[in-house]
Write a structure and sequence with these properties.
The chain has about 425 residues and is α+β, with helices and mostly antiparallel strands. The protein contains ten helices and 22 strands. The model is unreliable at about 5-30 (pLDDT under 50).
């Protein structure tokens, strides 16, 4: 039973009503020696690349000390136990992994503990001290708004636990998180919404607002990653247009944004102002230097979004906005494998096949006959959006065969247009 893992901790169960407001969190300067491990969700236990690098950054198996904050989770105790067990398979001992019992939702796997009573524990000085002595802090997945509500006071000030997390980072520690734990890393945070909702509905900024289902919610995150909005479960949940709209909204404070795939991480090094990609998927980078956004009767249209896609081992310089493909990757330009006419594909905003990766690699950058590729996306019976990816003189591709079945790819500087189209379905005569 999960409960037995909680017995060694003093659980402060306090009932206090909280009034939730939109937070104005003070974003601290990030001139630190720490690092971030930003995982797009779905982190699998056998992902040695991410777990290995994170543990090493935290001091190695002998010195690492993890504080786990399950504030976003609906099954807080289970989330902590699961993460702890995985860390122990990589050589950590149980006494190196500490629960920071902050949560908003009761975990029904613990019959003798009501985790919803942990919602005010962000103010517990004893928990703050445990965090302060750690070399790594891990935020679980769930609902990122719960983390903001439990670690930031109603007046916008930070709780002692959040202040302690910042101290860990400033002293050179690792701050990591998966799914919701990734979303909170940026200063401007996506709280909710779908790609179709972002394109067709007004943006909401009030976390208490009863906005129409699917509408894009933009609010404030914790700001550890200072370079732009971070989105997660990126291509599995079809969030490409969601991030593009957020990036090009008046609420964005940057001209660049990052979408992290499942079982994949951005490993950010403030000292070099760069990140490395780790894991099984990719990181999609959107830039809006010359993007045009127009409002049409069918919803928003975006033109000239610059898109790049990086995979394991690729490094991105956040100041120069340039990428360095992983060692061993060779340029595709002039050596394209495919040579076939581009045809309209469907469904990447619904996370359907063919995947985004296939489109921009096999169908576009590695296809000498294609200057562009289009993907049609349908929501309901009337709403339809076309996404077009186009090569430019600056577009480049790189690849390396990892196994006979898998080739790692890098795609740089293609243009993306997103626009509504009329959808007419009628039987053939």
């Amino acid at each position: 039973m999960v409960t037995k893992y909680l017995n060694s901790f003093s659980l402060s169960l306090v009932f206090v009503c909280m009034i939730f407001v939109t937070f104005n969190t003070t974003i601290h300067s990030q001139n630190t020696g720490g690092s971030l491990v930003i995982v797009g969700g779905g982190l699998e236990a056998n992902n040695k690349s991410i777990y290995g690098q994170m543990i090493e950054l935290a001091g190695g198996t002998e010195k690492a000390r993890f504080a786990v904050i399950p504030s976003a989770s609906g099954v807080a105790a289970q989330s902590w136990v699961s993460f702890s067990k995985i860390l122990m398979t990589y050589g950590l001992k149980a006494e190196q992994i500490h629960l920071i019992n902050i949560a908003m939702v009761d975990d029904d796997s613990t019959t003798d503990v009501d985790e919803s009573q942990w919602k005010n524990n962000g103010s517990d000085p004893k928990l703050a001290e445990i965090v302060r002595k750690s070399t790594a802090v891990w935020f679980t997945g769930g609902d990122q708004l719960r983390t903001m509500k439990t670690l930031v006071n109603p007046d916008g000030t930070e709780t002692p636990v959040l202040k302690a997390v910042r101290e860990v980072y400033q002293k050179g520690g690792v701050i990591g998180g998966s799914s919701a734990g990734a979303a909170i890393m940026s200063e401007v945070m996506i709280g909710n919404g779908s790609s179709f909702g972002a394109l067709t509905l007004p943006i909401s900024t009030d976390i208490n607002d009863e906005a129409e289902k699917g509408s894009l919610l933009i609010t404030t995150g914790l700001g550890f990653f200072p370079y732009g909005i971070v989105d997660q479960h990126f291509h599995a949940k079809g969030r490409l247009a969601r991030l593009a709209v957020a990036l090009n909204s008046k609420y964005s404070k940057s001209n660049i944004a990052f979408g992290v795939d499942e079982n994949t991480a951005i490993i950010y090094y403030p000292a070099t102002k760069s990140f490395k990609v780790a894991g099984a998927g990719g990181v999609t980078i959107l830039e809006n230097f010359d993007t045009k956004v127009t409002s049409t009767s069918g919803g928003l249209a975006l033109k000239n979004v610059v898109l790049s896609y990086l995979e394991e081992g690729d490094v991105y310089d956040l100041e120069k906005k340039t990428a360095s493909p992983a060692p061993g990757k060779k340029s595709i330009k002039g050596n394209e494998y495919y040579d076939h006419e581009a045809t309209i594909q469907t469904g990447i905003l619904n996370g359907e096949n063919p995947s985004f990766r296939d489109l921009i690699t096999n169908e576009l950058i590695n296809n000498k006959a294609a200057g562009s590729i289009e993907n049609l996306n349908i929501s309901g019976t009337k709403t339809a959006y076309m996404i077009r990816f186009s090569k430019t003189p600056l577009s480049e591709g790189f690849e390396a065969e990892i196994t006979p079945e898998y080739t790692s790819c890098t795609v740089l500087k293609v243009l993306m247009d997103i626009y509504p189209v009329n959808l007419l379905l009628q039987p053939k005569q």
